[in-house]
Write a structure and sequence with these properties.
Length: 71
């Protein structure tokens, strides 16, 4: 799916592992049509409007953030 130009959809969950310096989380999450996202990053992912952080766990320099769609 080309997240920058269209809506991505799935049934249940999206696992996202972009480059660590990725800064487009708000735009990416806005086009995903899933209730749950597991995201890898160099920092914990901050939940934008419409999302809630369920869990953040650090593994070395990797942060895995689980976000749930709200509303």
């Amino acid at each position: 799916c080309d997240w920058s130009s269209d809506v991505c959809s799935s049934d249940l969950i999206a696992f996202i592992d972009p480059p660590y310096d990725f800064s487009g989380w708000d735009a990416l999450l806005a086009v995903l049509d899933v209730p749950l996202v597991v995201a890898e990053s160099d920092e914990p992912v901050v939940a934008p409007a419409g999302w809630e952080v369920v869990r953040t766990k650090r593994y070395g320099r990797t942060h895995v953030t689980t976000l749930e769609r709200v509303g």
